[in-house]
Fold this protein.
Amino acid sequence: MRYPTRLAMRAATVLLAAVLTFPAALPAVAQARPAPESFADLAERLLPGVVNISSSQTVQAHNDHQGPEVPLFPPGSPFEQFFRDFLDRNRPGGQHGDHAPQSPPHKMQSLGSGFIVDPSGIVVTNNHVIDGADEITVTLQDNTSLKATLIGRDERTDIAVLKVTSDKPLPALSFGDSDHSRVGDWVLAIGNPFGLGGSVTAGIVSARHRDIQQGPYDNFIQTDAAINRGNSGGPLFNLDGEVIGINTAIYSPSGGSIGIGFSIPSNLAKTVVAQLRDFGRAKRGWLGVKIQQVTTDIAESMGLKEPNGALVASVEEGGPAAKAKLRGGDIILKFNGQDVKEMRTLPRIVAETSIGREVPVTVWRDGHEITLTATVGELPDDQKVAVAAPDKPVASVPTELSGLGLKLSPLTPDARDHYQISQDQKGVLITDVAPGSSAADHGVKPGDVIVEVQQQEVNTPADVVDRVDHVRKANRRSVLMLIQGQDGPRWVPLPLGSDEKHQPG
C-alpha cells in the first residue's frame, strides 16, 4: 500500500498528546436506544452525502530536501532517523546538499473527508485539510470529481466551508443536536481513512466536553469509533442519521486509531458554518478580558468558598468589559445566566452570544456577588506583541519581601529601559526571585511587575510590604498578587511563609 505524502500527514487527522479532563456532570437518566442488528440501512442512506477531499499545494524544494523522501514510520521509530541519515549522505552535494542545484517547484497532495450540507453544493470539512491548498477537489461517492472553491475557514475551530458546482442537486446531510448525545450512545463515523475512499466505522460516545488544548473553544465529543488519518473533516452520526460532530483529531502514539477520537460538536459547528457561508469568516462575541483559572489558593485568598469561575487578570481598555465596569480581580461566576464553573467555559459562552446583545454578568468582588450589564462586542483579530527578555541584572538597592523569596525595586527609568517595560506601566519591579521559593514555582521571574496586592494598586516596594503584612494579620494562608509578565498580566497566589528574612548563603 502506498503511504500518504508528508503534506497528507500534516493535513490529515491531527495527532495529539493525551491532555484530557473529566467530563461534565452526566445528564438526567433517559431511555437509551437499543443497538441495531445492523447499521447497513443507515450507512447506505448516509454514504452519498460524505465526500473525499484532495488538495494540492505547490512547494519549492530546498537543497537539503532533494531526492527521495523518508518512508513513513511511526513517530519515534529508529528506522526514521536511519533512512534520513542514509538519504542525506546520498543526495547531490553531500550530506547537507551543499552546492546542489535548486529543485523546481512541485505539487504536494493531501487527503481528507467532508460532507454536503446543502444540495446546491456546500461542503463542510476541517480547515487543516485544505490549509494552504492551491487546488481543492471534491470526489462524490459515485467517483464524480468536482473542483471546489473556498467560501470561508476558521482556524480557531478548525472548520472550513467549500462550494462545488454540479448539474444536479447533491445529497445533503443535516446537523443534529449534539447536546442531546449521551455517553454510551451509538455513533457512526464515515470518512476517507488513508485515502481508501468511503469507509464506515461504528462505536459509542466515550465522553463529552473534552478539552484537548487545541484552542479556546474546545468542547469535543470523544468516541471510540475508528478514526484514522484521512478521516479529518468527516461526519459523526447518531442513529437518526444526523451529524452530531465533525471528526477532527485522534490521540495515537502510533498514528493509527486506538479508539480515542475527537469530534467538534454540531451545535458549535453549525453556528460557525452558517457564519462562514454568510460572511466568509466567523463572527464571535467578545467581552475584552484576559482570564485565568481560579485555584483553591486564589479562592481562599479572596474569601470564595469554592474555586469556581474565571478570574479577570486584566480588562482591555475601551472593550465591552471596561464599559460594563468590570475590573481586574473580579471573578466571573455567571455570564448571560449560564454558570461559569471553570475558566475554559467562559470564552465559549461569550463567543456563542449574539453580538450587540446586553447580558447580565455576575462577579465576585470584595467578598460578595454583584451583577453588571455588558453589551457583547465582536471578537477582533488577534494581536501579538513580542517582548525581549532581559539579559543582565539591574543595579539597585532592593527591598526584600520577607517569607516570599522576592526582592523589589521601584520602576526607575533605567529599569524600564533594561527590562523593556512601557512608560505607562505602573507597579513595583521584581529584581530577584529565590530559587526553590513558591514564587519561583509559580513562574515569577526578575523583570515581572507587581501591579496589585489583594486587588489594591501598589506603586512602591513599601506598598507591597504593607499589603502583605495586612494579609498576614488577617490570618490568610496566601496573598494574591496581580503580576505583569512578558505574557501579560496574571493573578498569582503566594503562600505566606515565615516572617524571617532570607539570609545570604
Summary: The longest strand covers residues 106-118.
